[in-house]
Amino acid sequence: MGADLLIETTPAGSASGKVNIDFAKTAISVEPLHWTKEAGVPGQVTADLEVTAANVGTLSNIMVEVGDMKATATAILKDDLLSSLTVPRMTYGENDFALEFTQPAPNDMKVRIHGAQFDLKPFVVATYDLNEADIDGPEEDRMIDIDVEIERALMDQELTLETVRATMRVEGNLIEGGTATGKFAGEKTFNFDLGRDGETRTVSFISDDAGSLFRGLDLYDDFRDGTLKMSAVIDDTKESRPAKGTIEIKDVRVVNAPVLGKILTLGSLGGIVDLLRGDGMVFATVEGPFTYENGIFQTKDFRAVGSIGITFTGTVDQPANKIDAFGTVIPSYTLNSMLGNIPILGTLLVGRQGEGIFGFSYKVTGGMEDPDVDVNAVSALAPGILRRMFFEPWDQDDIEPPSTTKPDARQSP
Predict the structure, then answer these.
(1) Rounded to whole angstroms, how far apart are CA atoms 162 and 193?
(2) Does the global pTM surpass 0.70?
(3) Mean pLDDT rounded to a whole number for the chain
(4) Handedness of CA 121, 125, 130, 133 (dihedral sign)
(5) DSSP codes joined into one string, 43-109
(6) Residue 55's pLDDT band (boundaries 50, 70, 90)?
(7) Max intra-chain CA distance, the chain
(8) 25-29, 92-96, 337-341, 359-363: least confidently modelled range
(9) pLDDT at 405 over 80
(10) What is the C-alpha to C-alpha distance for residues 404 and 297, in angstroms, rounded to an integer?
(11) Burial of 237 per CB tally in 10 Å (0-12, 13-18, 19+)
């Protein structure tokens, strides 16, 4: 890094001058912005400098052209602190926004971000920690209030969240509270809320477009449409800060879903697989309890009811891209017969009272892209058991996932 500094001083103790810094030979990484510049890429920052006799410094006419980042700014330094930073416009990558920073007292900061576009993809894609910033331990004395007004936020899968409004309160390195709202395709709403409750924090996601939210946050790519209600409690007494909660999705369409397709194919439900490859398969309800810790999603008796009924108990390890789960699949006509919607067919399928209903169990293990799948035909599923599996509320204890080891009775031959 090369620097040129030209300073003129006065007898009264003030000074003025110009600053020119060349970053061409310097590699730069700004982790909070997910921005980097390699050594050898041109980069230059220039500014006018004024320092008063009271030791208040002002950097004006700041011009930044470093790598793909371009910005203009003004900064004030007072009492050895960056007192304020005003950036009327900053562009880099797919970002185009303005930033205002003030620090009225040490470790008491306020940030306002507003403008045309902010790229969220680096912040959400392959991020598996609810508190990623807390890895090195909290800075207990720091407080940051953040206010965001962005017209377009870019998400994964080329999705855009529009008219984004958000507030956030950070204490140390921990997000203590915040809200966020936005719209998919200009009309489908998204609402987020996070708040402190003693030694825990409560978080909720509500959206009219579950599919776009799951795809945009790089959580699951095969949902389309649907409404989402998700609530969870984050336990801050544990270093990993696990989250425990429930998810409810209504009227969601599932497309492609290769793992589900493999299960259904081995279970001789090829006609339903054709739905997945076409317009998709609609589930009236997808719901269940879960825990989420260090990128590992665990659940017990997660269930979906639609063209089929399916339960899911197990673990999805996102960092390792692996799955270990088991469950039961029941064709939709069997569920309908159980509910009495098709009484004659129901009698034929169920048989005499207590004889059970046909379906099949499955186990999935291995890599998410192409896991190993085993299926076994089952009977002896009485209507009361199915009713508990697919329609009755969970007990509170069900929110704590069990071991994902499949019971001996369900093991493949």
Answers:
(1) 18
(2) yes
(3) 82
(4) negative
(5) EEEEEEEEE-TT--EEEEEEEEEETTEEEEEEEEEETTEEEEEEEEEEEETTEEEEEEEEEEETTEE
(6) confident
(7) 105
(8) 337-341
(9) no
(10) 12
(11) exposed
Sequence-ordered alpha helix ranges (H) in 162-238:
210-216
Are the C-beta atoms of residues 56 and 77 closer than 8 Å to each other? Answer: yes
Strand partners, 303: 287, 311
pLDDT over 50 at 339, yes or no = no
- What does the alpha-carbon distance between residue 272 and residue 265 come to, in Å, rounded to a whole number? 9
Residue 194 · residue 203 · CB < 8 Å: yes
Tokens matching residue 108: 């008491």
Tell the residue number behind the tokens 């309890």, with chain if given: 289
pLDDT at residue 397 tops 80: no
Half-sphere exposure of 369 (CA within 13 A, CB side): 1
Alpha-carbon distance of 290 to 315, in angstroms, equals: 10
pLDDT at 332 over 70: no
